[in-house]
Structure formats: C-alpha cells, structure tokens
Design goal:
Elements: H1 3-19, H2 24-33, H3 43-50
Length: 51
Amino acid sequence: MVKAELDLEWLQLVQEALEKGITKTEIRDFLKTHKISQNKNIEPVISKSLA
C-alpha cells in the first residue's frame, strides 16, 4: 500500500468517525492510548473497538 493511499484511508476513517459524533479529542486519545504509529496496523485495534 502506498503512503498516499494510507493517508487517504486515515482521512476517510477520521471523517467517518467525526460524522458519527466522535470528537477530535476522542480520536486523539484513542490513538495515544493504543500507541498507534505509522508502522503499526490499526485495523485490528479499530475492529475490536467498534465491536
């Protein structure tokens, strides 16, 4: 996956979260709590959180 595609996916994911009522602070806290970095795959973390 190319970085530009990943960035677009992140943007879409964040936009969807915001549309569903999740705040920017909640997104930021989630990322800090789960220590998400560019080198980690977030998909399993998101799947578990949304379940």
